[in-house]
Design brief:
single chain; about 170 residues; mainly beta; Immunoglobulin-like; six-stranded antiparallel beta sheet; three-stranded antiparallel beta sheet; about 15% helix; rod-shaped
């Protein structure tokens, strides 16, 4: 009788283990995650790439829009502007230079929106002219160039390349 009782208990335990998944039930889990890394964009849509030719013939100060700047960042940003013709003498303007041996220059400043002119501070760069500590989408804003023409510029093409760079923290 003892053996039959034990057999019934063992059978009952076996059925119970099968129904409930047993004492050592198998499990599986998965962790789903994603990381948002700092990202940003800066774009410049060109408006005017050639200054008004008639202005370059007459001494004076002139101002023209040169294009629109658009900024987007999900983590705050700093924008820095550099000039190909930058001057290490830390002057407050950029230069449109002629080609070859022509030493004539046209000095200029740029302004973001209606703000005051941005000063070039070192080796032709404008340090951190636009910053935001938080995520931002800036409205598209016009960049203006103000330049000074002196009398008797040599016949030539005067140019500079301005680069807008954005960094995130």
């Amino acid at each position: 009788m003892k053996g039959k009782k034990f057999s019934k208990v063992a059978t009952l335990l076996l059925v119970l283990m099968i129904v409930t998944g047993g004492l050592f039930a198998a499990t599986a889990s998965v962790t789903i995650s994603g990381t948002v890394v700092p990202a940003s964009t800066v774009s410049f849509s060109t408006g005017v790439t050639a200054l008004t030719d008639s202005n370059l013939l007459v001494a004076g100060d002139y101002s023209e829009p040169i294009g629109d700047l658009t900024i987007w960042s999900n983590a705050g940003y700093t924008v820095k502007v550099t000039s190909l013709n930058g001057d290490a003498a830390a002057v407050n303007y950029g230069f449109l230079k002629g080609t070859g041996t022509n030493t004539d220059i046209v000095t200029y400043t740029i302004a973001y929106g209606g703000a005051a002119s941005l000063a070039f501070t070192d080796a032709g760069s404008i340090n951190s002219f636009l910053t935001s500590p938080v995520a931002a989408v800036e409205p598209t804003t016009t960049i203006n160039i103000t330049y000074t023409v002196v009398a008797s510029l040599s016949v030539d093409t005067y140019s500079d390349t301005i680069t807008f760079a954005i960094t995130t923290p």
